Amino acid sequence: MTEDSGGFQLKPEYFERDDDSSDANFYTQPRFVNHIDDAAIAALRTFYRETLPSGGHLLDLMSSWVSHLPEDRAYASVTGLGMNGEELAANPRLTSHVVHDLNREPRLPFGDDSFDAAFVNVSIQYLTRPVDVFRDMGRVLRPGAPFAVAYSNRCFPTKAVALWRMLGDRDHADLIALYFRLSGAFAQARAYDISPGAGSDPMFAVVAERLESPATAP
Q1: φ and ψ of 59, to 5 deg
Q2: 150 close to 125: Cβ distance less than 8 angstroms
Q3: Which residue, 1, 90, 91, 198, shows the most beta carbons closer than 10 Å to its own?
Q4: Could you give the domains of the chain?
Q5: In the chain, which ranges are continuous DSSP H helix?
Q6: Residue 57, SS3?
Q7: Closest to 155 (Cα-Cα) out of 109, 115, 124
Q8: pLDDT tens digits, one per residue of 87-140
Q9: Backbone φ, ψ for residue 85 (5° rounding)
Q10: pTM of the full structure
Q11: Distance CA 46, CA 150 (A)
């Protein structure tokens, strides 16, 4: 089955990967490295300061050992969902965490209306069932809650889906906006170029708010 939008279909082959082996095996060893440079991290922190609600309950989706949240903001809780328990345990901003493979099970292990906001740092390119994940994000977020998807031009190419590797930076924003729209759970997405400038990693974000009444999943 394919998702259709205005004549464009998200075909199954678009989500194939060069390395389709178990993601659990790929993420067995922790990687305590930053995947974007310091200037891009600073730009992302500034963006999150303006986008994510201070004092709210946050979900760090596809999390690791860093969340890139602004240091001068406090949150009621930050829950991390990721693939490596050692990385998650080392993240000082997380108040709780869970190891969960979204490509095996896109349904999130949280109750309805659990979070005031959610974000993904430079990992959206690895989702093989993104619309299903975005649709379930509409279940766990509260009405009006923002979901921010940040990306750069870096990735593990063997684990990134084929469609992501086919597209450029601007088209990546359109693709993420399409995920939001096809989920039936979010208002119109907005794209931002938050790149810090020449000599640094480019940085982009796409954000949409959860609808008051998300569409029922098929």
Answers
A1: -115, 120
A2: no
A3: 91
A4: 3-102+109-209 (3.40.50.150)
A5: 23-26, 38-51, 85-90, 130-140, 162-166, 169-183
A6: strand
A7: 124
A8: 999 999 999 999 999 999 999 999 999 999 999 999 999 999 999 999 999 999
A9: -65, -35
A10: 0.91
A11: 12
